[in-house]
Amino acid sequence: SQQGEEDPQALSIQEGENATMNCSYKTSINNLQWYRQNSGRGLVHLILIRSNEREKHSGRLRVTLDTSKKSSSLLITASRAADTASYFCATSDKLIFGTGTRLQVFP
Amino acid sequence: GAVVSQHPSWVICKSGTSVKIECRSLDFQATTMFWYRQFPKQSLMLMATSNEGSKATYEQGVEKDKFLINHASLTLSTLTVTSAHPEDSSFYICSASSHDSNKNIQYFGAGTRLSVL
User: Fold this and answer.
1) Which domain does A75 fall in, by range?
2) How far is the C-alpha of B8 from the C-alpha of B92, rounded, in Å?
3) Are A17 and A106 spatial neighbours (Cβ–Cβ below 8 Å)?
């Protein structure tokens, strides 16, 4: 079974709005990563947050991690049409991917 | 950033034939490579992990005689789908990681879409 479960499964927003995606996982982790996948393409690593970190920023991305709730969130601020993609969380050494959130940003 | 090249990007083959997919790390040495399979609108499912010079470790339910993996060098791993059948049609993605780079971060190829007729 999959380790991570993202929600929502799909999200549609207007350009300029913020997008928030959540990830829940089942077992203890060393780190959690977020990846992005454009349709029919490979994945691109976005950000890694370690189990002893609570929040991390990278450009317009903000990731939080709550190990007590076994959950993480990815916030994309001031979204752009180019952010349209699927976003996956993955945990620890052997990346186990969640089901992904399909984000659609309308211009 | 680290670049992983996957070839071919798309292949159509007849049932019963074998297909080889290549995964190359272009600007770093990949000590570990991973092979994933993805069905439409679904997540990536890890098929196997391969370390250079050793046999691949397959995930439960993945037939190692069906999906042959070779990782003969630090820059190349291949996945051969033997005697392909229509149910093998899928999107196959490789990734690579290096002990010299940020640990656990994987760099992905662009994927190979396999269609078996």
Assistant:
1) 5-106
2) 10
3) no
> What's the rounded Cα separation, in Å, for the pair B79 and B11?
13
CATH number of the domain that residue A77 is part of: 2.60.40.10
**Secondary structure of residue B86 in the 3-state scheme:** helix
Whether residue B107 and residue A45 make contact (CB cut-off 8 A), yes or no, is yes
Q: Which residue among B105, B109, B111 places its CB closest to the CB of A45? A: B105
Provide the number of CB pairs (under 8 Å) joining chain A to chain B: 51
Question: CA A91 → CA A61, A101, B10, distances in Å?
Answer: 18, 16, 29
How many structural domains comprise chain A? Answer: 1
Q: pLDDT (tens digit, 9 = 90+) per residue, B13-71?
A: 999 999 999 999 998 888 889 999 998 878 889 999 998 888 899 999 999 999 999 98
For testing the chain B interface, which of A30, A94, A102, A103 should be mutated: the one with the most B CBs within 10 Å? A94
- CA-based nearest residue in chain A for residue B102: A48
Q: For A45, which of B43, B91, B106 is closest by C-beta distance? A: B106
Residue A16 has pLDDT above 60, yes or no: yes
